[in-house]
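Many introductory courses stop at the sequence. We go one step further.
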Amino acid sequence: MRYRSTGRLPVLLSLCVAAALAACSGDNGAGPTTAAIEPGIDFINVFQPVDLTPDGSIALLQQFNAGGEFYFYRTKTGSLEFKGVVGDPSRAAVTSISADGLVTGLHGDPVIQAGIWTEHSGWTDIPSVFTSACGTDIASAWDVTANGRTVVGMAWDECGVQAFKWDATGSGIMTLLQRLGESFPGNTLAPSNRATVVSDDGSVIAGWAQTAQVDRYPAVWRPDGTGFLLDGGGIATSDTPGEVMATSGDGKFLAGYWGENAFYWTQAGGVVSIGRLPPADEFDFHGAIANAISDDGKLIFGVSGQPFFGSANAFVWTQGAGMKKLADVITAAGLTIPEGTTLTNVIASSTDGTVILGQATKADFNIVSFVVHLPRSAYGL
């Protein structure tokens, strides 16, 4: 194995194999990528994968160290670039990246603020509309549109939270989204809500809302701020926790988890369970979480199992093949995963699903990030 020196952290070079090239003469699925995709997998010695630009060209990564260093990884060239610090990683984190490299996060130390970072300006706070926060927790930004103009997240109102959006092209004032759900019985605080994701075009915002029975229930908001809770559609009941974790670029497809199952949602079809991988043994955690979905809804990625107990596996789901271990698809495409390395989670994908960002555990138990390039034909599309 060869390592490229970045001046700060080593990057394991691509493990592409030439034998796979014959299978990727073109992209068979609808999507923005038309050039041939060369299969490859890179392992990067940074603990936390965070997000990808819509075209998959830049991966946002964060190191779990004292300053909370974050990096850009250029997926085409394999270069790793230190960009800044976000704060104590036990409380602060970078959360998303726009097409042109604007980063969102909950940053600061000890006060946690919602903020945006750019190469030119560094961190800029998004001021909260609330006068009372929860100790040193003020607000957090969780996602951004492709053009970097709309940011969504949550703001602390005393020790409850409300979902917000912020438009960089407008007044620059945080706009609160409709508060959904109900408070727990006997709780005097209003129900907590969080906007976790926003579609690339800004047409759909989604996340979770507290109800009288669970702390997280899948919730969706429109651009005007009004919203609704998803209907479980037979896969979940009112006491089943869940959250929307991903949206297609136009907001027509949503994905996330509900109880032990990953799911996707469309306005026409409602909620559809995509299940979970079979457990490794009787002690295996059975849940699955969908973290990424392609723009056409044909590819869904995430995790099935529990990383902390060594039983988690990154998955890919298609309508035709159902849920599979991502590692099986990768090796079938002719790539080699180092012995003892487990792909444990997929965090994000490009809009066409040909670039995937995730987390892996190596044979020495070191946790790293990975980037995979695969043509859509590798998934049977």
